[in-house]
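During data preparation, a discrete fold description was generated, and the record follows.
___
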Amino acid sequence: MPSALLSRPRYLRNVLCGLMVMAVGLLAVLSAEVRREMRLFQEEPVDSIHWNLTQLELDLVLLLSAAQLAQAQDDPPLDELRKRFDLFYSRTDLVRSGAMFERLDLEAAIRPLTARLDGFLRHATPLIDGSDASLRAALPALVEDVQALRMDLRSLSIRTVEQYATQADLRRAELARLLRQVAATSAALLLLLVALLGSVLYLNRQAERKTAEALRVSSRLQATVATALDGVIVAGLDGRVLDFNQAAERIFGFSRDEAIGQGLDRLIIPARHAAAHEAGMARMQETGNKRMVDGGRIQVTAIRKSGEEFPLEMSVTSNSGPDGMIFIAFMRDISEPVANERALLAARDKALAAEQAKTNFLAVMSHEMRTPLNGVIAAIEIVARKAVDPSQAKFIRLAQSSAKQLLRHVNDVLDISKVEAGHLALSDSPFELEPMLASLVDVLRPVAAKKATKIELDIGTGLPLVRGDSFRLGQIVQNLLSNAVKFTAGGKVVLKAVLHPQGAGMALLDLSVTDSGIGIAPEDLERIFEDFVMLDPSYGRTDAGTGLGLPISRRLTEAMGGQIGAESEPGKGSRFWLRLPMPTVERAAPPPAPAEPARTTARDGADDPVLDLLVVEDNATNRTVMEEMLRLLGHRAALAVDGREGVRKARAHRYDAILMDISMPVMDGITATGLIRAEGLSKDSRIIAVTAHTMPEELERFRGAGMDDCLTKPMSIRDLARTLAAVSAPSVPSPPALPEPADAVLDAPRIEELRQALGAEGMRRTVAQFLRDTTATMERLRSAASSPLEARALCHELAGAAAMVGALRLHRHFAGLEARLHDGDDNSVAAAQTDSDRLWADAAAALGGLTEA
């Protein structure tokens, strides 16, 4: 019994302790729930969401205002509109990401607005980033979209407040329930207060130990902050400094005692930023929102005690201290990294400027040298046709060779500058590989023969048509072939080309130039594709050069999406290879070949009438060719140099037919035709258009103006004879057009026809006239490059004259320029100046060689 009595209090004490533990546990759980609910209320992001939505709506209103202001002006500046759009765009991330709305269960509410925002940004961003013209045109629609978006944003703000109110009511009800449970539990615990008195002593001892531990942790933390390499500044909500570590002293020059208690705006913030800082602190004091500063690292401008401003990287966080909210800023002086970055950027900009200056200098100098060189070459060509003294002819040939070599060097330099400046334009047209490569080989055969070197072409037959820039591809191959011939004496050079089908209308051109020459040392194989590198291993360097042929070839190959390289062994020869992807073109079925009419140098048949004809043509070359053709056909020809003179002659004399050019100065052919049809002796005569215009709508326009027929430049004597036959026999049908010759420098059938029609002397006179006229017209074209209308007329004149004398490649070049000018490409003449000069030089040289032969 005594034992039971003794054990009872112990038992009761144990029971009481158990009940106390249970009660304390329940109270702890309820307290934790209360604290969690209270923390949710404190951390509720609705203020931040509402503030950000308000800011987003304000940015949208400012964007709408800028758009409406721009719409109200005739030619508004758009910089403010683009700035407002960028600010609005940057702030839309808070809605589009949806992260801030998850806590309030508003994901479904913001989803329609997110979709609307995405649609608006996808539509508006290209307009904002596009041209001013397209943005002005889209202003009305942009204003409507912004107004509609503003209403959606206002609806979201209202729904946010409503949703928050609903959730707040639920949380208050939950909190009230918890508080009632806490009250009940507390009442139960009152009964255990006596038993808990002993526990209080225990808890006091525990608290003392924890306080001592906290003091130790605080001491370690203070030591850590004091010795940190980054500056640490602690400030209160009023902006006054509470702590200032040693690193901050080194950064700003203030001692800790000087800094404590001072306002940040007077201590480390430049005067021009003080107002913004005070406004931000005022907002935080009003809202108490500590999350407004937790934004990661930022870069700002700070000021030292000496007044020196410097760049500072900092991150700011916030916390609740004994006296309220505090802000802890971690700072790092980044003056040296920023200075290094600026120096690096300045060095880069200086290097780029120097490179651009070099490119511009080369381009300007090459152009200024090439312009007089073209005149010199043309003048030498003309003099060469008149030279009869063999000694003079010898020196003229030397002058021709030197001038053309110098022009090639200048064009090489200009090609380099054009590629580096990104101004190289590649054409895209179908062409035949086999005849193009064969013509390049044929040109170099005489040069190779002088060095007892054979040059061969190894290419299959029946190759498909390919699309690309045949001129630039020919330039690359010509460079490779020229180098092979240059460094091979008494050996062999082989040009091999294979097309490997790749599917989907593509093929890989695998082209190589192999020689048995002197070879290249392994250490020089990479250098040979660098600018101005010239190797001089043998033969006493008998061939001059600029060292630009291979660098140009490399740049052109890369511009066309291909690869180029070389393999060589000194003393055994070299192999240069080119791999280029090229689209293939389906070859159309050839039209049936017309029966070849008998050639004639005069009229066929004694019964053919002699026609009295008027030729209206402003180009002297074309007039000469047409006059010679008509003379050989046995007809009489009167000449007029423009439409006005043609009208005057047609009214005063009755002609059987009038050959009328279309594009002429003073008065064009269409206007002249209308005036001739109105009155005069030749108003009923047959008028035949002579033009390079071949589009159906153009031909229809000629017929509508009163013209009866059309001859397309370049015309043959057969075409002219058939057309004139219709003057007396209009039922004779026109023959089908012959296939266009390959893209060679000269149109061989046309040249042969001119030879037979004009004879040797007539051919010389015609070519000499063409060279004189085209030299002058080319100079006029250079001066008119900035005047699209005048340049288009000159390109038309050059295309027609080139077609008439058989300069096929030159004709196509200027016909293409005329078409590009017609389509609105006003810079095409200036951009193609190098190609124009090169093609003109090639045509002049080829025509000059024909007349010499």
Residues 1-9, 537-542, 590-606, 729-742 have pLDDT under 50 and may be disordered. The longest helix spans residues 139-190.
